[in-house]
Design a protein that fits this description.
The chain is α/β, with parallel strands linked by helices and 903 residues long. It is built from 37 helices and 31 strands. The chain has four domains: 235 residues, ATP-grasp fold, A domain (Dna Ligase, domain 1); 87 residues, D-amino Acid Aminotransferase, Chain A, domain 1 (2-Layer Sandwich), CATH 3.30.470.20; 134 residues, Phosphohistidine domain (Glucose Oxidase, domain 1, 3-Layer(bba) Sandwich); 310 residues, TIM Barrel (Alpha-Beta Barrel), CATH 3.20.20.60. Helices cover 48% and strands 17% of the residues. The chain binds phosphoenolpyruvate (PEP) and magnesium ion (MG). The site of magnesium ion has 5 residues, from helix 32. Magnesium ion (MG) binds next to helix 32. It is an enzyme of class 2 (transferase).
Length: 903
Amino acid sequence: MVKYVYDFSEGDKSQKDLLGGKGANLAEMTKLGLPVPPGYTISTEACRAYLREGVVPETLATEVTAALRNVEDKMGRHLGDATNPLLVSVRSGAKFSMPGMMETVLNIGLNDQSVLGLAEASGNERFAWDSYRRLIQMFGKTVLDIEGDLFSEALDALKKERGVTADTDLTAEDLRGLVETYKAIVKAEKGMDFPQDPRAQLDMATEAVFRSWNTERAHIYRRRERIPHDLGTAVNVQTMVFGNMGDGSGTGVCFTRDPSTGHSGVYGDYLENAQGEDVVAGIRNTLPLSALEELDKNSYDELRGIMRKLETHYRDLCDIEFTVERGKLWMLQTRVGKRTAAAAFRVAIQLVDEKLITMDEALNRVTGDQLTQLMFPQFDASASKELVARGMAASPGAAVGVIVFDNAQAEAAAAEGRKCVLVRRETNPDDLPGMVAAEGVLTARGGKTSHAAVVARGMGKTCVCGAEALQIDAEAGTVTIGDRVLTGEDTIAIDGQTGEVFFGEVPVTDSPVTTYLAGGLEAGLAAAEGDEGTTELIEAVHKLLTHADSVRRLRVRANADTPEDSRRALDFGAEGIGLCRTEHMFLGDRRPLVERVILSEEGSTERQEAFDALEKLQKEDFLQMLDVMDGKAMTVRLIDPPLHEFLPSLSSLEVKVALAKANGGADPADEEMLATVRRFHEENPMLGLRGVRLGIYLPGLFALQMRALCEAAAELVAQGKDPRPEIMVPLVGSIRELQLIRAEGEAIIAEVAADKGVDLSKVTIGAMIELPRAAMTAEDLAHEADFFSFGTNDLTQTVWGFSRDDVEGVFFPQYIEAGIFGTSPFESIDVHGVGTVVAEGVRRARSTKGDIKLGVCGEHGGDPLSIHFFHNVGLDYVSCSPFRVPVARLEAGRVAVEAKVSE
Ligand code: PEP
Ligand code: MG
């Protein structure tokens, strides 16, 4: 029989798959002997069974009874008892944290009887009725699916009637009346009484948490965070402790280090006389955690001790939720805390400096995605800016855009390509689509741990929260700041590092991390301008990248077609060029020469003249690039795209000729061109006359490129330089194709070497693997190749049969929505399909030539997940755009360390 229920004393932090993150960490804290209110976790396996079958597993009820009795015995109280009742919370908790995305119900066990027992036991009648009305409100909204506004409107109406503004000003009598109103809402909306049976409440709430895995907002969040949809959530049932039992009680959230800077200290928010949800929701403004020291020194000291203990135990920044119930501290949750990208780098190195972790471990505490975030531009410090408000710096970055107030406006702006900033009083999980669409988020209420802040940090989105000067009227579409009124027409800029809000457009500048990456440590430190945090960050990035470079096996090259790009690539640490696409060198003012090649007869003087002119220009291109890349490999891909890309557009020519004919006669040159364009028109150009096929179809074309390259290399060798060109043949499918081009290439190399009297034996010839047939016959192709580079863009296109220029914008959103894939296979390698073809190509190639050099130069070469795959499959190098080179270096280091651990 499958076991579905685990007491907190049974698990540990390694069991996130089964118990969810929250459940596993509650078990770990219980194991550490920390004051955790007793409870149990219903496993993710139970949720998966529920989602599969549509009913809870039959044996669950019995297991819950046993687990509940165990908790009751520990507490010496019974669920929903008429005197001194045990109350429990029911919370979701998936393997990966999904803040606020799924449901929570507190105060389960209260009913018309036990509310009196709670009043008696707590000696606080008001608290008891407030707890009961909260239960009906949460239960009504999340379990019974009643519109939440019905409850909050009833509460507001009551406050108005009593002439009070704060909930806390309502009396026990008021709240007792509110309970009746709430019960009437349930009856009116659902035609049923609010369930009085505590166990029924518990079971219904559990099922609601299971169901909440599949809400729309949970789906959106998972898609964005690349969390698989089939994991399911665990359900944590835990003894309630109360932060809202009057003075001496309260609840808070804290971090062992600052989650935006990484600095050690006391970071967190505390709310007196409140329940946990009040802090996270950002409804009331919180006190800094340090205020607890004055309010309740014992609890504060105990909490500091636990924070330190947890950080030592987890060897990482922890994020903690706690409650103080009448002077007694309880730990409700801990986890390795989400943090900003900058904090991730700083904390990793701080922990190394404190000897809590090794450099290898530190490398796995940061990601390529975080490094990318740090490379984002920031506001230009020297620009004149009009500061209009200040809030908390909740998530870094610089966002500029027009003001939007809700999801619809944000999504509409994004669809029109207009940048926008989502401005809200506070956010809640329903605002997720707007947060996704906006450049940044600005709220008027809530602290660094509010929903907006936590979610924005997780997404790497700029966020400023708690800008209290803002009076937001979403309905009227206005933001009032002092006597200034802004509307949706206005642009604002928010700085996620300082919390500043500016009016109007603000120019942005490079990040100091990018300055470091491009210019080295000294340049980076100079760009930090003495700022301590930035200096620490640059040093941390430097140490981690240096370590990554020292452990990685994968070499990192760049895709570059110009001397400038090549230089940038070198600055970013590229060790060579993995793909120089030569077709760009045939466009612009050189296009007429290509037209002449196409229009002229094979073997004609005209064609030869066009070839000669092109060769001369190409040689100049290669000279410059090889010079920049002196001593480093430079893979030159022979011309690849379909011919029609070099010819005028068919439709405009047709129109031109037709119009001219109608007006008395077309230019014969145009007519001739039209006939040629028609001849070369293809229904599926990506599968047509391109790559090696073009090289064979148009004799002399590849030859001129190879000669230009060899001549350029020869000239540099004669100057005492060390050019390392590699000739790469695109879209090869058969060994014969490669043999033909290779023979031609070898003859040219020998000819130029003899002619110029230099050694060109280092010039190699290889092929791109872009077709399934090439991968599946790589053992043959390897006889004719010195190297292979997987062109995973075309390989994805040909393995899936997707037209790469068409599909992403058309039906991929639906494919992602329908879970056919989580991310576009053009972005991150489709490991099962395309990946298997790559792996097979590697195996076959190496079966012929054990040491053949293998790389990848498709877009995937710069994608973190794909880089891990390429390491594991045994490639020698990845090649990506210059800007992604640092990310590739870091990820190549990370995967090398991971592989070391799993050896
Ligand atoms: C590829 O196909 O992966 C590749 C790098 O070539 P291109 O994108 O130029 O077709
Ligand atoms: Mg290609």
